[in-house]
Amino acid sequence: MMASRELRRRQFPYMQSNGRRLPGIAGLQRHLEMYKKIKFKGCDRRGSLVTADDCSVFNVEFSSLGNYAVAAMESGRIVLADPLTKRTTRDFQAHDDCANCVCFINNGTFASCSDDCSIKVWDHRNLTEPLAAAYNLHSSWVKNIYYDAGSQSILSGAFDQTIRLWNINTSEDAKENTASGNTLGEDHLVRIALSKDGTILCIGCSADRDDNPDVPGCCMKVFKGMQLRERGLDVSSCTEGRITAWPSGAETVLSLRIFSDNKYVMSRCSENYYRDWLCVHSLTSFDLLYEIRESSVPYGIIKEPGLSSDDRVICSPFGNRVRLMAFDQHFCRMDSDCIADAATAVTGRFVEFLDVKLDPVLPQPVLTCRFSPTQMLLAAGTSSNGTIAFAEPKLS
After folding, report:
1. Span 16-43, mean pLDDT?
2. 91 contacts 109 by C-beta, under 8 angstroms
3. Which among 68, 163, 43 has a CA at the least distance from the CA of 122?
4. What 3-state class would DSSP assign to 377?
């Protein structure tokens, strides 16, 4: 029976990117019905999923093979957890201030960034000291990072209003890391996103309400045709676009993620951190395709949604729950035979989500959630008590 369950888990169709045709909308609805049976398996500190820190989990990411997950903690610690045994495998002090984000370089190596302004690269087999570190690239909090395999560099965005490209194979003081071609300034920068192939850079900004109270709201800049390996962060030859259509009242872009086909971008935006929305924009027409209100609890803290590896299902923090959303038949991204631009497919109206809220609730509000790339599984990190919960359907 256990072997059968494991086989079914690993063959879950829409969580795999194996080239087979994805199921239609009816099949997707069945899979969402299966997700309604998800149960969170939390336990106390002596158990498997509550870390040694009574603090918030700001970010959690799965390795490329899905065999372990890494969480960035408010305390500056990094926690490694086994999603199968539901046990913490390593827990160490990585930074002197909040750890904000992790990204994987390969299945065994990952990087972390922090409010201590540093970026560090770690080998999960030996965490006594980083493989490489950059302490002086930024002068303020480093909020998120991406690894670009083509240039072997880490792209970082920070509250010093700069985006920097750091080649991890060189010293942080090397000439190429301080050259203007590897630094991009952006006023009111909050979040960045880099496409998987490194060709699209999205920059989420907040509204400049202090200097200009009449500005309409948050904004996202989009640079297409990035060539980080050849040109670094020189965007002079890129195609630049700007997304200005947002829910009424939205002031700040809190999180970003580009779909793997480079046609859409998912974001979470907020009005003063007290009203949140999840949005999907087209990167071909720069239209707002969909918006949905999200829970803002706990107030004043950034929440991070996740996207399945095939781009079909979104998991998003929703109070003490995780909300699952999938695109309906009007959204042509669901079918590779559809036309390229979803904005024309919906004939002027927003697409709709199939919406599932998972029960039972977790003991604390969820701040971040991610899908496993290989299993029918998602991870959620909570505020306050350091819980990393794994959720999977109950199969019989």
Report:
1. 50
2. no
3. 68
4. coil
Cβ contact 259:265 at 8 Å: yes
- In whole angstroms, what separates CA 389 from the centre of its chain? 17
Residue 54: how many CB atoms within 10 A of its CB? 12
Question: Is the backbone of residue 240 left (phi > 0), alpha (psi -120 to 50) or beta?
Answer: beta
- Edge-first strand listing for the sheet containing 142-148: 142-148, 153-158, 162-167, 183-185
pTM for this one? 0.83
Q: pLDDT tens-digit profile of 173-227?
A: 544 454 556 899 999 999 999 999 999 999 999 986 555 555 567 899 999 999 9
Contacts of 184 (CB under 8 A, 6+ apart): 162, 163, 164, 233, 235
Mean pLDDT across the chain, nearest whole number? Answer: 79
Q: Please report how many Cα atoms fall inside a 13 Å half-sphere around the Cα of residue 78, on the Cβ side.
A: 28
Residue 128's alpha-carbon distances to 102, 121, 178, in angstroms, are: 17, 12, 28
Report the candidate in 166, 156, 182, 158 with the shortest Cα–Cα distance to residue 235.
182
Q: Fill in the amino acid letter for 323.
A: R
Contacting residues for 2 by C-beta, under 8 A, at least 6 apart: none
Alpha helices (H) along 324-389: 342-345
Radius of gyration of the CA atoms of the chain, in A: 20
**Contact 95/111 with Cβ under 8 angstroms?**
no
Q: Report yes or no: 81 and 381 within 8 Å, Cβ to Cβ.
A: no
pLDDT (mean) for 307-331: 78
Q: What is the pLDDT of residue 85?
A: 82
- What digits encode the pLDDT tens for the residues 260-277? 999 999 999 999 888 999
More confident residue, 95 or 385: 95
What's the pLDDT at 342?
A: 34
Q: What are φ and ψ of residue 28, in 5° steps? A: -65, -40
3-state secondary structure at position 291: strand
Whether omega before 365 lies within 30 degrees of 0, making that bond cis, reads no
- Whole-number Å distance between alpha carbons of 210 and 190: 16
Identify which of 376, 366, 355 has the alpha carbon closest to the alpha carbon of residue 304.
Answer: 366
DSSP 8-state secondary structure symbol assigned to residue 15: G
**pLDDT at 308 exceeding the cut of 50:** yes
φ, ψ for residue 84 (rounded to 5)?
Answer: -85, -45
Rounded Cα gap, residues 304 and 184, in angstroms: 24
